[in-house]
Amino acid sequence: MQMAPTQTRLSTSRRTETCDPHHNISTWVDTYETHVSPKTIQSSLAPQLDTRLTNNLDYNSQESLESPRDSEKSVSHKLQRRLAKNREAARKSRLKKKAYVQQLELGRQKLAKLEHEIEKTRQQDAYMDLSNRVHCLLLGNINSGIVSFERKYDLWVVEQRKKESQLVSILQSGVSEDELRVFVDGVVNHYDELFRMKADAAKVDAFNLLYGSWKSPVERLFQWLGGFRPSEILYILMPQFEPLTDTQIVNLSKLRHTCRQAEDALTQGIDKLHQTLSQSLAVNTGEGGNYDTYMSATIEGLEALENFLNQADHLRHRTLQQMSRILTMPQVAKGLLALGEYFQRLRVLNSLWSARPHHMINS
């Protein structure tokens, strides 16, 4: 009788233990706290968390490093292209600026040269006016034809320098021979204009044209019958014509030989005239004679100078024409430039001689 209650109590307690939720939760917590402590969780989860975090950090760091590199490469490439474009633009700008400055400098030089020529012309005109007044005061009269020729000749020299400057520019620009011929003919025709001026002046006073002051003293020393000696000029200009063909050499030699023959004939004629005039002045000087008759004959002999001067200029004119036919246009252009430079140097030499220091004169 006593065993029954005990069994009943045990079964009741088991049933109660099984069905009580609070008891089960507390028992589970106690068990979990006993076997799975916080230290156990930390020790078991830490490696996994560390691994995942490390992987995530590596991925993020790699992503964060690779993306800026690619971006920097792209930016660097664009920057280099932009800098290259800027450098090219700056180079082109410098070249344009340099060309512009050169054009300005060239224009300034041309303007300065033109102003110098204008001023020189004004000074020459002023000098001629002063010279005319002095002659009028000293002589009481003056030959207006000679004065007009001298003034025209001064202007001719200025214009000749302009044409030669144009010819230099055209020759350096590399134009065709037909275009170059226009400027070459312009220079040759300008010489023809001088020959016509001299022919008109010879009618007025051939003696003044032959020995007058329209040429400087140094120029008169080198001139022949009022101008250059053609055979001598051909000899001086020969090196400027090179390279020459065999045919050109032969033709130039023939031309020079022909010029020398004509020069000798004219020189002999002027020497004969000089001898005749001397004899005319010396005849019967001791006997008195008719003075007026002798002077009239001498003046008529002097008038023959006009013919000699015209023939000499005709020979110079023909020489320039024949030279243009024998040579090519570039060769003729170089020859004309050398001829103008030769005359310019004679004028400069005369200026240097006139302006030489006094101690050189005294010594």
Question: What features would you describe in this structure?
Answer:
This protein is mainly α. 88% of the residues lie in helices and 0% in strands. The chain is built from 12 helices and no strands. The protein has helices at residues 3-19, 21-35, 38-139, 144-173, 177-211, 217-222, 230-241, 246-282, 291-303, 305-326, 329-354, 358-362. α4 (144-173) packs across α11 and α5 runs antiparallel to α10 (305-326). The longest helix has 102 residues, at 38-139. 13% of the residues are buried.
Let me know the largest β-sheet.
none
Rg estimate, integer Å: 56 Å
Number of helices: 12
- Structural shape: elongated
What percentage of amino acids are in beta strands?
under 5%
Which bin fits the share of residues in helices?
over 70%
Mean pLDDT: 78
Beta strands, count: 0
Helix-strand topology string: HHHHHHHHHHHH
List the uncertain runs: 1-46, 57-66, 132-141
Structural class determined from secondary elements = mainly alpha
Distance between the termini: 179 Å
Keywords: Activator, Coiled coil, DNA-binding, Nucleus, Transcription, Transcription regulation
Protein name: Transcription factor TGA1-like protein
Organism: Tanacetum coccineum
Domain BZIP: 76-120
